[in-house]
Amino acid sequence: MEWKTRVTELLGIQYPIIQGGLAYLAYAELATAVSEAGGLGQITAMSLESPDALRAEIRKVQAMTNKPFGVNFAIGQHGRPYAHMVEAALEEGVKVMSVTGGNPAPFFAQLAHTDVKTLVLVAAKRQAQKAEELGADAVMVVGQEGGGHLGRDDIGTMVLVPQVVDAVSIPVIASGGIGDGRGWMAAHALGAEGIEMGTRFIATRECVHASSAYKDALLTSSEMDTTVIKRTLGSPARALTGMWTEKIIGLEAQQANYEALKDFIGGEANRRFIHDGDIDHGFGWAGQVTGLIHDVPTVGELVERMVKEAEVIRSGWNFGK
Which end of the chain is least crowded, N or C, by CB within 10 Å? Predict the structure, then answer.
């Protein structure tokens, strides 16, 4: 079966499957594997310390695949400058860039008059409409089931995606709670023209920067084993439940401000868990889809399985025949 949508046409990919930005995890090995499997792999730019480091990561992907890939810019990291990182990606010939968090207007201003395809992660209809006004080529819509940073309104993927589809004319990519062919086809039924997956791609062999403890936690956790932190800061985000997230929730209950929370919610605490496997002194982002994760395949095996699952469903959508 062919999987032609506006998303596959826009990005030049075989399947409308996009790998999420995945802070501190989305590097060349994972991005290349997803692109080679027919989707769109992405590098996480703002987890790298400098433009030179980003250039090196981009060149690694370019050396391993000639298929399309993207660079993700998580711009909401407490005012960290990013224009020099975008410039490095432009100079390296990156053709797809995505942006998450923060105000994307400066991002689009910098990319004006280029041929870069742009994707924006949104968590509300109004954000999607603003992204379209700014010139986004597509929006990735994340429901409250997703891992990492979410919207403030607690709207699920099932409700949010069709709302956005009705509100914009550009392609919509569904995210949040998707981890197999069933979720993929459900997204299409809602009007989306592609999917983004984050948590599911962490539990793959090519996500080499994720510790075995992190992957094991994804395998053994259910959909009930995630917690939304940072609500009191206005930037809710879903992580695996553990001792560290319980400390964060306790501090938030005491109305702790950002200064009191920053050592608990920052990148160092995140890396202690996801890189070092220190589950008692750090945290790892994860969506409710963790309840559907039962193995750690290669990316190629995962995508192939999803395609087979989706094809069975798609071929059965001949209700009257």
Answer: C
Q: Phi and psi at residue 187, in whole multiples of 5°?
A: -60, -45
Separation between Cα atoms, residue 239 and residue 248, nearest integer Å: 11
The total of other beta-carbon atoms located within 10 Å of residue 228's CB is 14
Helix (H, G, I), strand (E, B) or coil at 255: coil
pLDDT on residue 285: 98
Look up residue 296 and give its DSSP letter. -
Q: Give CATH superfamily name and number for 6-209.
A: Aldolase class I (3.20.20.70)
Q: Does the pTM exceed 0.90?
A: yes
Domain spans, the chain: 6-209, 212-288
Compute the radius of gyration of the chain from its Cα atoms: 18
DSSP state of 154: -
Dihedral sign from CA coordinates of 11, 12, 16, 19: negative
Percentage above 70 pLDDT, the chain: 98
Question: Which of 76, 90, 78, 83 minimizes the C-alpha distance to 21?
Answer: 76
The residues of the chain scoring below 70 in pLDDT are 77-79, 318-321
63 C-beta neighbours (distance < 10 Å), count: 10
Sheet containing 148-149: give its strands across. 148-149, 237-240, 226-229
Q: Considering only CA atoms, which of 174, 75, 165 is closest in space to residue 129?
A: 165
Q: Which residues pair with 175 in a beta bridge?
A: 142, 196
Q: Find, among 37, 45, 47, the residue nearest to 68 by Cα.
A: 37
Answer for the pair 43, 72: CB distance below 8 angstroms, yes or no: yes
Strands (DSSP E) contained in the chain are 17-19, 41-44, 69-74, 96-100, 117-122, 138-142, 148-149, 172-175, 194-197, 226-229, 237-240
